[in-house]
């Protein structure tokens, strides 16, 4: 295609459509056309080789699963986005699996009995379905996708550490072979669960994730997970609470400007709806609530900003609310409220605020926890450096699941003394199509893709120009020689002008272009050009195969 459809937002989405690699069937659901499937297959080959090298064993589990399995784990009603499901002809509820922790745990509990069976790691490359509310960016956020997911099983946490590190090493090798320079960052575990997790992130402006990095010590974390050192305010004695009239003031910015104080001297009240109940979060006015931290603090419950109707029904006053004197509403307080004194907070009546509010003297917390969002310029939690923010694309995620699934679903082993223990699990995922999209985001120019040899749809693009029988015969013969030498060649024998052929070759990102033309053949030569090079070079026809081999080594 000369031009991509207007709805294509990212570089990878536009190029995948223009090069004929994918076709959208529905929102977030794509068919892979021949070129796209070839690249995807190459990525899967790399993944399989590195998983096997790390000692993992391949299995395959079904996409359609009984809902009862998800009820065992407790995720049937809590997974986000909600599970896609249907009823079969027998009236049983069937789930389209968004991930396979339940299925793999059921597999292992049926086969493992003793500590002698451990440790091991299983993996698969399988289709998943997640009913994303806002699929976007082509392959970067879809509803149906292929994922490599691996699961490790150990007798203890020390073994899990070994398995986790082995998978981390394998992931670094996979991404390096796919031409991606990734950063391993601390991350939130999300609906998968577990204590610790790390993402592998490709830093790119088109990324939908924000990564906080410290250039001094190397600390790196997704913004959903990132910590920082909160700045304490100067010490001062606690003063008596004083009511003040603040007509028309509804925001922290306006309140601070009106009183001539920094926003850090205010107590911000944010209303959330959790399981149908309104929750009041109090945080220092210069900070923002990290809703992922809030969700985790509430045990994984879904949190949403409360509507005006919900706020009014709870008896709260938007713009003038606080936890002071609050009854009947759950109070959650960010620990920043301990790092200062004499804050200005809402008086819980219109157009009024309270000066000199202090925690915990004047209001209580049902839960006191870190809820603040880290931002660029904040102090690194590990050193004296400052955090910087970059956009990134998640291309892999690894989790230390621990014993949560094993305990809920009865996956245990017997130790040397006959005692029963839950199996310790780890989980390791790579979205295969997402990896292709990310690779294109990292490898392109104005003419199209510049994919690494390992994942390009073909290694060599070969074209004959001129249309006479001698050129056609020479090109056909070279095609056979290159194939016989083991190269993966796309032979373009279309009757199209040179410009069309060259533009298509550049668009597809094939690493090496070889051209046989009437002009070059007069001197028994062929023209060879690296995709990223500005100009082609000429080589003797009989030396074409070694010249291609040398060029591919450079690519």
Can you put this structure into words, describing what you see?
- With 555 residues, the chain is α+β, with helices and mostly antiparallel strands.
- The chain folds into three domains: 11-227 and 388-440, 2-Layer Sandwich (BirA Bifunctional Protein, domain 2); 242-369, YbaK protein (Alpha-Beta Complex), CATH 3.90.960; 458-554, 3-Layer(aba) Sandwich (Rossmann fold).
- The chain contains 14 helices and 31 strands.
- Strands 3, 7, 8, 9, 10, 11, 12, 21 and 24 form a nine-stranded mixed β-sheet that branches.
- Strand 22 (412-414) and strand 23 form a beta hairpin.
- The protein is globular.
Shape: globular
For this structure, what is the CATH homologous superfamily of the largest domain?
Answer: Bira Bifunctional Protein, Domain 2
The span between the termini is 26 Å
Q: Quickly count the domains.
A: 3
Please give the structural blueprint:
Blueprint: H1 11-18, E1 22-26, E2 29-32, H2 34-53, E3 57-58, E4 64-66, H3 67-73, E5 84-87, E6 93-96, H4 101-109, E7 120-129, E8 144-154, H5 157-177, E9 182-186, E10 196-203, E11 209-214, E12 220-222, E13 242-245, H6 252-259, E14 267-274, E15 277-284, H7 291-297, E16 303-305, H8 308-313, E17 330-334, E18 343-346, E19 352-357, E20 367-369, E21 387-402, H9 404-409, E22 412-414, E23 420-422, E24 424-431, H10 432-442, E25 444-445, E26 448-449, E27 460-465, H11 469-484, E28 489-492, H12 498-508, E29 512-517, H13 518-521, E30 525-530, E31 537-540, H14 544-554
Helix pairs in contact: 1-10, 2-5, 2-10
Concise overview:
By secondary structure, this protein is α+β, with helices and mostly antiparallel strands. The protein contains 14 helices and 31 strands. A hairpin with a 5-residue loop joins strand 18 (343-346) and strand 19 (352-357).
